[in-house]
Write a structure and sequence with these properties.
mainly alpha, about 60 residues, single chain
Length: about 60
């Protein structure tokens, strides 16, 4: 499970950016890492909810 207190966004960005072909300077890498830290904090409660195979997604609105 995703633990926002143990997630290292700087290490994640440093590893993932080259893997997807991004060359980020130090300043941009720091800004992206700060954004990832925020995303992890916001997403952690939703990702902590246990789901089973019987759980169904919400219906999609189609006008």
């Amino acid at each position: 499970m995703l633990d926002p207190d143990r997630f290292d966004p700087a290490a994640h960005v440093a590893a993932a950016a080259p893997a997807v072909g991004l060359a980020l300077d130090a300043a941009r890498q720091a800004r992206v890492a700060a954004a990832f830290a925020l995303v992890v904090r916001i997403a952690a409660p939703a990702l902590a909810v246990p789901l089973t195979e019987a759980d169904e997604p919400a219906p999609v609105y189609r006008p």
